[in-house]
Design brief:
CATH class: Alpha Beta
Number of domains: 1
Radius of gyration: 15 Å
Distance between the termini: 37 Å
Helix content: 25-40%
CATH topology: Glutaredoxin
Number of strands: 9
Strand order of the largest sheet: 5-4-3-8-9
Strand content: 25-35%
Order of helices and strands: EEEHHEHEHEEEEH
Number of helices: 5
Length: 159
């Protein structure tokens, strides 16, 4: 079963939303508009691809900050799972818990996937760059984990 392509959201204002975050924080989009935001959605904590992606965003984090941006990871995992994943990898950025799929629905990243021959609902690895005005500047959908953070950083530097 194939998913229809997601409609592009580029150029549209991103509606405000809030999610619980690691570090005892609450992420609220409207509170963070003084800088470009990189929000990356990933399927699951402690899986190989998601670990690679998180490590690469971690390793380039200082460069993202130097370019004026902030990085936030999102999955449907619990805050406890996120806290453990963040601590294990030494992530310098927060992870957002979207267990009720608020942001996943907003960004249209929930897709049907094949897993061991069964159809399951899951997050399609996707990243979004939101500009200072709260508009979606760029989107990457269905990405491969390895090398993706560097591509996002390169795009942020041109903004």
């Amino acid at each position: 079963m194939s998913n229809p392509p997601s409609p592009s959201l580029v150029g549209l204002e991103v509606p405000d939303f809030s999610l619980p975050a690691t570090g005892g924080r609450t992420f609220r989009l409207a509170d963070l508009q003084e800088q470009p935001l990189v929000i990356y959605f990933y399927p699951k904590d402690r899986t190989p691809g998601c670990t690679t992606e998180a490590q690469q965003f971690r390793d380039l984090y200082a460069d993202f900050k130097s370019a004026g941006g902030s990085v936030w990871g999102v999955s449907r995992d619990s805050l406890k799972s996120h806290e453990n994943f963040k601590a294990k990898l030494g992530l310098p950025f927060e992870l957002l818990c979207d267990s009720d799929e608020t942001a996943c629905t907003l960004f249209d990243v929930i897709k049907m996937k094949n897993m061991y021959g069964k159809q399951v609902k899951g997050i399609e690895r996707s990243t979004f760059l939101i500009d200072r005005a709260g508009r979606l500047a760029l989107e990457w959908r269905g990405v491969k984990a390895d090398g993706h953070a560097a591509a996002v950083l390169a795009a942020l530097r041109t903004r």
